[in-house]
Design goal:
This protein is mainly alpha-helical and 99 residues long. It is 46% helix and 11% strand.
Length: 99
Amino acid sequence: MYFPKKLVERCGEFVGEHPEVASNVRDFMVRCVRLGFHKLREVYPEDMPKGYAFSEYLPREPRIRVEGDRVRIYFPDREFEIIRDIIVGRLGLVSTATT
């Protein structure tokens, strides 16, 4: 998933100031996306897939790639597909999601 570079920098600053929240910026952002997904479940329960839970496992290597003014952060494929299906397909909250 792609995020604005400034957002990633700000999240990195937050993690630096509060290391108890995550071990690195990628883990922090993955946790934020997962929290957002759970909040969407509360607001739109009828649009959420039944019986699916994100894995607790996150790869040790934080896979982050800076591409100009945006940053690509790796999410497990299954999680990305679920998030894209819900946010773009079912809810129409954004017009596109890129891999």
